């Protein structure tokens, strides 16, 4: 549900738009009404909608008038296509989209090639509930329609192509230009990264959960994508913040379309996608609103080992990415821990010299929100496998550390000739951590006293822009509102 106050029309309270509804015998007005005009941003959610005029607030609304039931012209229309990588070759890309049509559709690409979609969905019975009603199962449910997914093959790495998706019966999308990521082991990669985005209304509506920076961050990244400044995108947890109000996934998919339809959009699961009581998550908070990871894994199929095992690795250019779930068991006896250990130990550093470790909940933050168990269990793996850079979200700001291990700075950056903080990993001591949870949710302020390992702290909306070659990793935090680089650093190593 979206709602607006009619007082958003400044002429309403003063009755500047009035109309006489009843006249006496002499033609004088007996009853005058005041009118207002407000605008709603509506997207195709496949189901009927209705506008309701009510008073007395949200807790005990008094319905005054209702519109007729409105239907979308084509509820089967294929919408919100978004890309992801299925392997590290750069020659195959998965396209996922939503439609009201349960019949298989197609993606057409490369001037004549086509692939038929695999169709999935999820139901209200797949959602979680507990002693207290959950939004997802009990009062926030919305039919997701059908989720289509198809893999485009025979592509070339770091090359532009176009596609369209749909069917003759349901309709077709516009033709969209996209770019494949570089293959793993090649020299160069440019990617954008962030966490905790969510969505915000494009009108004056009140919603249950609004992430005020999300629209501006997406617009800024869309400019980067249009300018060719990115090869791929990583969104590390807290994806839509639908938290059980399922229609909000559609609004999020609509929001990210300008970027996710054009580049590989890789994701990690966060607490607001997975956590719920008695659901198998390591944290028993109600943060997912009863979604328990089902919508997330349906909308964003990643190259994971199996359902509800949302961890994977992917190589692009000179980087080996390790993407974990901080919401599933990561203790030393767990399947995920064993996978992490084996995956990082198997990296061929001559092919991908950089190892970037990503997940949602952080190991370091001056704002707290650190689980000491996670810190104690998993941090030694980072040092053992000489991870270069660690990216986390969950805390809604930007923070960068020294090369840190066990709360101690093992190495400090030195100023390069151009004044940029430079970490020399030819003499590796420990990874650098960066919190990048500043892509949409209301920002967190920093406490007066920061961690002794903290080098840079910024509470502004933005995203990370990273450029790697075989010997150099350049990281920039970009303020989405000003487009200015607020922090930058560099990590170097020999070829």
Cα shape? globular
Order the strands across the largest sheet as they lie in space: 16-15-14-27-28-29-24-23
Number of helices: 7
Helix content class: 10-25%
Count the strands? 29
User: Beta-sheet strand percentage?
Assistant: 25-35%
Low-confidence stretches: none
Mean pLDDT across the residues is 96
Q: Given the helix and strand composition, which structural class is it?
A: alpha+beta
Task: Report the major sheet.
Answer: 8 strands, mixed
Q: Separation of termini? A: 55 Å
- Quaternary form: single chain
Radius of gyration: 25 Å
Task: Give a verbal description of the structure.
With 495 residues, the chain is an alpha+beta fold. The chain is 13% helix and 31% strand. The chain has seven helices and 29 strands. The protein has an eight-stranded mixed beta sheet with strand order 16-15-14-27-28-29-24-23, with helices on one face. Strands 17, 18, 19, 20, 21, 22, 25 and 26 form an eight-stranded mixed beta sheet that branches. Strand 14 (189-194), helix 2 (214-226) and strand 15 form a beta-alpha-beta unit. The longest helix has 14 residues, at 247-260. The N and C termini lie far apart (55 Å). The mean pLDDT is 96.
């Amino acid at each position: 549900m979206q709602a607006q106050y009619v007082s958003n029309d400044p002429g309403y309270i003063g009755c500047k738009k009035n109309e006489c509804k009843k006249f006496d015998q002499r033609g004088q007005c007996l009853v005058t009404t005041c009118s207002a005009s407000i605008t709603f941003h509506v997207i195709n959610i496949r189901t009927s909608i209705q506008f309701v005029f009510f008073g007395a607030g949200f807790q005990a609304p008094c319905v005054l008038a209702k519109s007729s039931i409105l239907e979308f012209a084509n509820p089967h229309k294929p919408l919100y296509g978004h890309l992801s990588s299925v392997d590290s070759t750069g020659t195959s890309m998965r396209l996922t989209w939503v439609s009201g049509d349960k019949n298989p559709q197609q993606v057409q690409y490369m001037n004549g090639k086509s692939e038929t979609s695999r169709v999935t969905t999820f139901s209200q019975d797949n959602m979680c509930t507990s002693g207290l009603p959950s939004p997802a199962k009990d009062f926030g449910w919305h039919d997701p329609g059908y989720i289509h997914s198809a893999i485009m093959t025979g592509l070339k790495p770091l090359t532009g192509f176009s596609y369209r998706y749909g069917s003759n019966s349901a309709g077709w999308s516009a033709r969209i230009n996209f770019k494949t990521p570089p293959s793993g082991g090649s020299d160069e990669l440019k990617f954008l990264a962030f966490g905790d985005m969510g969505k915000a209304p494009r009108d004056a509506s009140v919603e249950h959960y609004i992430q005020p920076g999300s629209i501006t961050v997406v617009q800024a990244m869309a400019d980067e994508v249009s300018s060719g400044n990115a090869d791929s995108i990583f969104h590390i947890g807290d994806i839509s913040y639908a938290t059980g109000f399922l229609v909000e996934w559609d609004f999020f998919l609509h929001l990210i379309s300008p970027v996710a339809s054009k580049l590989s959009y890789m994701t990690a699961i966060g607490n607001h996608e997975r956590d719920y009581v008695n659901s198998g998550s390591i944290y028993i908070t109600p943060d997912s609103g009863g979604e328990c990871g089902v919508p997330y894994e349906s909308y964003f199929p990643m190259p994971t080992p199996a359902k509800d095992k949302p961890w994977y690795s992917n190589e692009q250019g000179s980087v080996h990415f390790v993407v974990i779930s901080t919401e599933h068991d990561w203790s030393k006896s767990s399947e995920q821990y064993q996978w992490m250990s084996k995956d990082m130990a198997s990296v061929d550093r001559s092919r991908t010299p950089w190892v970037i470790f990503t997940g949602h909940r952080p190991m370091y933050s001056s704002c707290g929100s650190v689980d000491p168990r996670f810190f104690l269990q998993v941090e030694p793996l980072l040092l053992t496998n000489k991870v270069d850079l660690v990216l986390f979200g969950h805390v809604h700001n930007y923070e960068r550390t020294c090369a840190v291990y066990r709360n101690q700075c093992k190495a400090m950056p030195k100023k390069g000739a151009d004044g940029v903080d430079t970490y020399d990993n030819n003499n590796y001591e420990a990874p650098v951590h960066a919190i990048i949870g500043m892509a949409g949710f209301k920002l967190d302020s920093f406490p007066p006293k920061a961690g002794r390992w903290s080098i840079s702290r910024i509470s502004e909306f933005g995203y990370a822009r990273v450029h790697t070659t075989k010997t150099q990793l350049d990281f920039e935090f970009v303020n989405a509102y000003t487009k200015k680089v607020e922090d930058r650093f560099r990590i170097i190593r020999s070829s």
